[in-house]
Amino acid sequence: MSNQDHIQQFQQELTESISTGTFIKTSLGNYQGNEKELKNIYVRRVKIKRTDMLSFTYRYKTRDIFKNYSLDEGVRMIAQLISNDFKVCTLFTTQKELILEHHLKGGIAIRESLVKGTVVPDLAHNKEKKRLIKPAVDRNYLHDLNITDGQGEVFKNAQDKYKQINQYIELLSPMLKELPAGSLKKVADMGSGKGYLTFALYDYLQNVLGQDVQVTGVEYREDLVNLCNRIAVKSGFTGLSFAEGSIQEFDASSTDLLIALHACDTATDDAIFKGIKAGAKLIVVAPCCHKQIRKEIVKGKKKNELDFLIRHGIFLERQAEMVTDGMRALILEYFGYKTKVMQFISDAHTPKNVLVVGVKTKDSPDIRKEVLEKIRETKAYFGIGHHHLERLLGLEA
Q: CB-based contacts of 369: which residues, under 8 Å, 6+ apart?
């Protein structure tokens, strides 16, 4: 057989596998073309808007590019590619593997091997990521919060919020699992807003981890408190409730997990203060605004190696954020918390994307003097008169 005959044979086998529903994928390798960074192309069958198509993944050294073609156009494209630039092409079907290979002397050969077992082709265009909070008809709160429709499908305009909910639970999940079994009884979510994340957390704790907990969302706006309480009752979440009031007013005693996401400025300090006083096993905050320390830095007008930065408002704001949250972490460490700071949610969802976490460990009197000295040095360096959390806890010198 001539080289062209081999290519036609491969093309016919490819077309037949697609028409009979046995096609799984095609892999094109050993690229000898002019695009220096192109390595391979992988082709699979997908269904896009109820139309069967071939999806090409162009695998480059540092990136992937995706292109979709009609079935006929895709087959012609593969035949053209194996005639010229790609020297090895493998067709995977549910029954066999067919390999077309160019030899060094210019000839082309085809060999095949039978497949043991049964493989079902996957026609999903976007493989669904495993979510800890899955949309479903029986998750009434997602529908009542306008995340999903009555059939449990996520609304297009709610995709970002749904991803945010799951990223939040994914971040908390390993922290929750590290706590001693049965130790998590009382949870407070300070500044719960419309309750998206509060509902998801209760759902995960109660229905996924099987923990019997009492979760309270604290929110200043009466209309949101009433709305969330109605949804909690409707969802059968007997351990979930929402309380009207401020963070300062809320009785957080005996709280095991305290959360405050995007509490503005010193409200984050108020939440951390409540958690420390309650001896919470886990404190999780995503700070918002950093006006108090920013004003202190401006008022102090301290001359140091970094003072050129605060001439620019955006740098001043970022510096205030880092100093504020860095000192919060130090103060948590003073009271026996192991701390870490991580990214919370990407800018696509919210510009506030720092999460400060404190996990209660044994108090260590030995490090307290060291921590206080570091706080004192930081204040002196940046010209800060006081940090609100420091003042709340009576740590001011």
A: none
> What superfamily does domain 140-392 belong to in CATH?
Vaccinia Virus protein VP39 (3.40.50.150)
What is the rounded CA–CA span in Å between residue 252 and residue 187? 9
Structural domain boundaries of the chain? 3-114, 140-392
Phi and psi angles of residue 367, each rounded to the nearest 5 degrees, phi first: -90, -10
| Burial class of residue 384 in the structure, from the number of CB atoms within 10 Å of its CB (0-12 exposed, 13-18 middle, 19+ buried) | buried
pLDDT the model gives residue 324: 95
Residue 98 has phi, psi (to 5 degrees) of -120, 125
Could you give the strand order of the β-sheet that contains 354-360, starting from the edge strand earlier in sequence?
Answer: 240-244, 214-219, 186-190, 257-264, 282-288, 354-360, 337-343
Structure tokens at 15: 């077309």
| Cα distance between residue 284 and residue 39, in whole Å | 44
What's the Cα-to-Cα distance from 202 to each of 130, 169, 189, rounded to whole Å?
19, 10, 11
Q: What stretches in the chain show pLDDT beneath 50?
A: 127-128, 346-350
Tokens of 102: 């160019």
Q: Please tell me the predicted confidence (pLDDT) of residue 191.
A: 94
Give the per-residue pLDDT at 366: 81
Phi, then psi, of 187 in degrees rounded to 5: -125, 135
pTM over 0.70: no
Task: Give 247-253's long-range contacts (Cβ < 8 A, gap of 24+).
Answer: 247/190, 247/191, 247/218, 247/271, 247/274, 250/188, 250/190, 250/218, 250/274, 252/188, 252/277, 252/278, 252/280, 253/277, 253/278
